[in-house]
Amino acid sequence: MSSLAFGFDQDTSDIFATTLKKLNEWNVDSTGANILTPLPGMALFTRLQQEERILTYDWDEYDLYHVVFEPMKMTTEELYHGTRWFARQFFSAPSSIAKVFSTLRLGFDSFLAILEHHITSRLIYRHTFSPR
Length: 132
What we know:
Blueprint: E1 2-6, H1 15-25, E2 31-35, H2 43-50, H3 76-90, H4 93-102, H5 108-128
Parallel strand pairs: 1-2
Helix pairs in contact: 1-3, 4-5
């Protein structure tokens, strides 16, 4: 299981496909896919604020699923849609079925945990990353 964020200054629009390929090569059974979200009090927030890259101070959007800053090497749309694409690919039905059943080798408890994570992640990402 892993968790990751997209939108770091070195990230370009190819990061989504590259990350998906690597996670599949490494047989990562589940992940969390988030948009980098600078929060007040963090050095990242201060730096982006000084660079005038903060796009909104609507705190409802500071939820890991909205782009609230100007990325350096891609557009805000590329970051949003790329993260959405990644989540939909990783948690597609065929991918989820293969990943969940591959965890049977780890025991029934692991199987149930990954199954639950895939089901809830599919629901969360479907709702959160609704088409704009």
